[in-house]
Amino acid sequence: MDDAGSAAEFKRTNRKPAYPIGNILREYLAKEGREVALPVTYSQLRDFSTSAPLLERGKDTLWETVAYHQEEMVKLSQGLLETYALLRGEGGLKVFSHVYVERIDFCSFGNSQPFRVRIVNAYNENHDYFYVKRGDASRVCGLELEHLLSPNRMHYLTWGDTLVEEHVTGIPGDIFAEKWIDADSHHPVRLAKELIKFEERCLVRLLGDMRAYNFVIAVTPDFDATAIRVRAMDFDQQSYDGRLRFYLPGSFKENRPFTQLCAKHINAASAAQYRREEQSLIHRRLLAAPERMRDLLAAMDANILTSPEKAIELAEGLAEYHREPAFRMHKTMAGLIGESLARLDRILRL
Asked: Could you tell me if 228 and 170 are in contact, meaning their C-beta atoms sit under 8 angstroms apart?
């Protein structure tokens, strides 16, 4: 028991810390309309009176459905509906008068320990989710970088130590690998292409820990074939780890089914083509909002996101990987992202 206790304590102490949102980052969020007075805070949701495991087909989902005292639940439900209206419709609760809070779930695993709120349309029983989490500078910067440099628009709000995020729709990568990767409903080459492009995005903007359970596969029927997009859904490990491989999804054993798929269907020349395509798209997105990116990187540079040792370690890894000594000049994660984007500008001009 002592050994087990020590192992558990080791795991807890090595969990990534939640970094506070500093003043400069907060000013950036306010300027961009992300910082909004929210009707419900994370700490209010933590004050639940009881909980019960949420099961699906008899299996534990690792989520718990929580309950509150009746008077408190009435207040929270109203506040959560107002929050949903702010997230989805920039206020205007009248439009959302026919929706209600069906359930609030809590997950004690993971760094953010999120609450998941299930919203249901009373007319047609269609449902949606959103999440209430502890505010964390890493996650906020990850969401903002995803919004600016990826093909995905991210809807989220902050207020004090609270972060509200929309639900990212798609099939979780681990479930997709188990049940869908060999299905006839999608073209394997298209999936492999998107996986390569996804890895390039992660490396350029330094989004780490994209194991299969941290991204989703969004499948959309098209007129002649199925369209596929790989999307990150967890931004907790934005610019935190010092190991280069942490920013290469193909390096994780959990992603082996996907790396095998890519090796089977994509040759080196095609892989290089898809990476260059994604680099070009990232560069174009950067050119569309250069001042906003500059302000974000300045806010990130002023905010603690990791230890100096990790940033120096990653700088060395990036310098060797890209054969670009310029990475060694930077001592912060924001500086490394800035250099990564500057590198795209250089290679695309060749």
From this structure: no
pLDDT in tens, the chain (350 residues): 433 333 333 233 357 899 999 999 999 999 999 999 999 999 999 999 999 999 888 888 889 999 999 999 999 999 999 999 999 876 667 677 789 999 999 998 777 899 999 999 999 999 999 999 999 999 999 999 999 999 999 999 999 999 999 999 999 999 999 999 988 778 899 999 999 999 999 999 999 999 999 999 999 888 777 889 999 999 999 999 999 999 999 999 999 999 999 999 999 999 999 999 999 999 999 999 999 999 999 999 999 999 999 999 999 999 999 999 999 999 999 999 999 999 999 999 86
User: Alpha carbon of 102 to those of 34, 122, 170: distances in Å?
Assistant: 26, 10, 22
Report the alpha-carbon distance of residue 342 to residue 322 in Å, rounded. Answer: 13
Task: In whole angstroms, give the CA distance from residue 211 to residue 173.
Answer: 8
Do residues 44 and 69 lie in contact, with contact meaning Cβ atoms separated by under 8 Å?
A: no
24 contacts 298 by C-beta, under 8 angstroms: yes
Domain boundaries, the chain: 36-136+155-166, 171-348
